[in-house]
Amino acid sequence: MEYTLTLPGGQTLLGQDPVVVIGPNGSGKTRQTRQLVAAMPMDFVNALRNTRVATELPAVGVDTARNNFHSQKTQSRISHWELASEFDYMLSQLLAQESMAAIEFTHRFRSDPQGAGAPEETPLRRVEQLWGRVFPGRELHWRDWKPLIKNRSTGMEFEYSGRMRAMTPVGFARWGGLSAIGFAIAAIVGLGLWFTGADMPEAHHSAADLAKRVVSIDRAIAGAWVLILAMVIMVGFSWWLLARYGQRSALVTVGAGALALAATIHLVENLLVIGLYHGIIRPMAASGASDSAAGDAIWAVVSSASVLAFGVLGLGAFMAAIGFLRDLGAPRWFAYWGVFTGVLGFAAASSGIFDGLSFLAGPFNLSLLGWLIVLGIRASTQLSSAARER
Known about the structure:
Elements: E1 3-6, E2 12-15, H1 29-36, H2 62-78, H3 87-111, H4 123-134, E3 138-143, E4 146-151, E5 158-161, H5 169-198, H6 207-213, H7 217-245, H8 250-287, H9 293-326, H10 332-349, H11 361-389
Antiparallel strand pairs: 1-2, 3-4, 4-5
């Protein structure tokens, strides 16, 4: 059916295609459009609406969902300045219609399997087909009244909530790459501040040694805070590894968990360092005190936590590298680099027993930072290339 829309200047539009009114905020778009369609049986769709899908949609019947949907539409027409929120009710109505069609088909099939025919073509099915055309490689499906996206656009499959629809695969990959680079930058800055402020504290064995050799307590504490930031980023990067590759490789899952655990250990370690230098080393350096049993105990805990974190980080890199090689087809040079980094981490952790191996902490940190950066960049560029090809 065609309609005739009369514009303010007397011009007319004839047809049934959508009419879009655009303009700056406050220019009168909504008011003008309401006047145009006042005498016409046309739907008025206000752009001021909430289209963020709820985590779980209301499980209601067809009539209730339809009534709620129309009630929200009416409310948005009356209070056009408020954010419309009928989107969830529209999806609930589609799901309710799909459920009724599924029940009717099940009854037909049980009564007459040969003559049941094909399931009814529902509005929800057409929405899913349209979604597949607009977003190639991404399948819209439902579980427990929750909208989910199954992504196969990159050659691998992972699933996420419909609320995350704005995070594209390329954006998700870039987030991982940026978090790896952010971790590396924060770790390098933090270690630089820490070592230049505390004067290579790993070589010392008591609070008295720390107080005697410290160069700048404020700089050492600042370095510890920056390292805490780096560890928080590392936890986020570990989550990204798990979400990105966990469904395809149990070894990568174990590696991501180990990296997150090591980051947590390092975070607690640096909190203890801040308390130690602020509460004990600073007064000792100012007064020239030669001993502190509490300081010695805290430093022993810090040193033990440090070597433990080295070992757990090494485990994380080792397991993830084996997973990339065995399950994900990563290049051998990349996987062997991760394995080498893991072995370095184990050796650096052994410095808690063999003092002569303490020099390995530096090479291990550099190798780990480089490997994580390459991992993030590789994942980001691979998905970007896949998106461009599509």
